[in-house]
Amino acid sequence: MYTWGYYPNGAGGAERQAQLQAEALQRRGHQVSVICSKSSRPQPSVANGVRVHAFPYFRSRNRLVEALCLVGLFLFLMRRLPGVDVVHVYGPDLKALVIAFAAWIWRKPLYIKITSGGRDGDLDRNYHRLTKFWTVRRAAALQTLSAQITNEALAAGVKPSRIVDIPNAVDFARFQPVDAAARLQARERLGLPAAEVIVLYLGRFTGEKGLAVLSDAWARVVAPEAALLLVGSTAEEAELPEGIFAGRTAHTIVREWSNEPQAYYNAADVFVLPSLREGMSNALLEAMACGLAVACTAVGAAEAVVEDGVSGLIVPPGQPARLAAALQRLVQDPALRTRLGAAAASTAHARYAVDPVIDRIEAAYAAMLAGKAPN
Model pTM? Predict the structure, then answer.
């Protein structure tokens, strides 16, 4: 498997989903090895039973440095791929391009997951022509998360028989609703206010996540009894937009990423996802599984996951006034929060369990190894 980051250094939804699936496949008797980018923080060679190989990769203007990193990865793959059955890529970036080329040399079936759609998504990057040719079009199976991504894959020339529509999954052993007493205990452990309504954003601190829009929206919410809690990746990976810091008040709390995100879900009342683009948000599914009322933007698979007014509130992306109105409703109406949260938990538990997702991934693997189309 290849993913940009991996536990304990992967804060993004794609990385958390890679961990969930790698560990589930390992429990089923498969031998899973993960390739990821090296972080300044220590990366264990074995994480929860999964072998991890971390490679240096520098986002630099020096193309020679980048090329040397990619050459090192290629040489490693040429040694290791003969003993591999399937290559599974989470997001077709430049390193995935090298991985796909090595897989092609050794005639190993390639499974690619498209993690995000829309403008600047996986199929619309600066290097999209290369990735479309060597990764996306050559994949034996291409996993999509939304109708938008499926349409983009078809437009990129992927055969319909190679596209598999498999959702993300949630580990319900970790992500479950809690009662009021447990919520207060979680707040006490995290040093969060006990009496305020807590609105949680959890994810990467990047522009594509719509945090500047959220900052503008939160400034419009009239709710002195509420606090906005931002939990995300550290400045090493990406920084908060300037507007977030400029607008910090006593009712905005910023925390660094935690590998125990369930503690923050347990402490919160509302979950907000202001993204400008997405695939199928891992954090959204986790928050729903924990019974939080959600306000999210209509991007990626959100409208397929959340039923507006039933299991959450959906607003157009990039419109702070609409997002503010949704947050205002949720902050002021505890009965609405309870109703939406219960429906969200029911939806998540009915649709996004781990075992059915892994069953379908295994079936796609089996089809590829048999030389058949997975769909």
Answer: 0.90
